[in-house]
Amino acid sequence: MSAGLVEGRMALVTGAAQGIGLAVARTLHQHGAAVAVADLDGERAAKAAAELATDGGPAVLPVACDVTDEQSVADAVERVQRELGGLDVLVNNAGITRDASLRRMRAEDFDAVINVHLRGTWLGVRAGAEVMREAGRGSIVNISSLSGKSGNPGQTNYSAAKAGIVGLTKAAAKELAHRGVRVNAVQPGLIRTAMTEAMPPEVFAEREAAIPMRRAGEPSEVAGAVLFLASDLSSYMTGAVLEVGGGRLM
């Protein structure tokens, strides 16, 4: 175990059974936090939690959670409080894609992406903030995307949702700052996950070539930015949006 930038804290990460969410949960755990691994798929959450627990250290709690359902989110937060002892860090990471061109995208696919990313983040921020404002401290980190800054063809739903997360982050940060609760966001660029590696190889290569650092990022590199925002190293930061994209949109 490392010295622990979040030693003794309790964290909840949504969409944590794989990809960026799992990397975030692992990094927070390695730095001393007890972590709730939340995912829509409870079995995958349990498998991921068991994997993290093999490293020893603080508790790891699997949680089945539908981030689009108000009661499910409230229950997840309540369970984390009850079983881990509190909630100091919340990472709203859960997401899906339903890509299609504007003219071919179905309304239900637009709604599905907005519901998971934007409604899900809002429900998480609201439920987490209720706990944190009473404690007088806490860090909420919302996962946006560079797609929310530049827009991606075929992703009007995803880009809109990720842009909305930035506005939500800043509004919530202004509401909660005086209660000691910080709300920040991370905007990953092209990150090497199962989702991006399912892209046609020529499309992936084209996007990678447009990045000044000439490579895709790794989930652990996004997790490092989340760890920074979760820790006291960023104690005077709120409403900030950190880009983790290899310089793609600078």
UniProtKB/TrEMBL annotation:
tRNA-binding in keyword set: no
InterPro entries documented for this protein: KR_dom, NAD(P)-bd_dom_sf, Sc_DH/Rdtase_CS, SDR_fam
Keyword Oxidoreductase: yes
Top-level taxon of the source organism: Bacteria
Gene Ontology MF terms in the entry: 3-oxoacyl-[acyl-carrier-protein] reductase (NADPH) activity
Class of the enzyme per the UniProt entry, highest EC level: oxidoreductase
This protein's UniProt keywords: Oxidoreductase
Ketoreductase domain residues: 9-194
A Pfam family reported for this protein in Swiss-Prot or TrEMBL: adh_short_C2
EC number of this enzyme: 1.1.1.100
Signal peptide: none
Entry's family note: Belongs to the short-chain dehydrogenases/reductases (SDR) family.
Name under which the protein is recorded: 3-oxoacyl-ACP reductase FabG
Protein species of origin: Amycolatopsis acididurans
Taxonomic placement: Bacteria, Bacillati, Actinomycetota, Actinomycetes, Pseudonocardiales
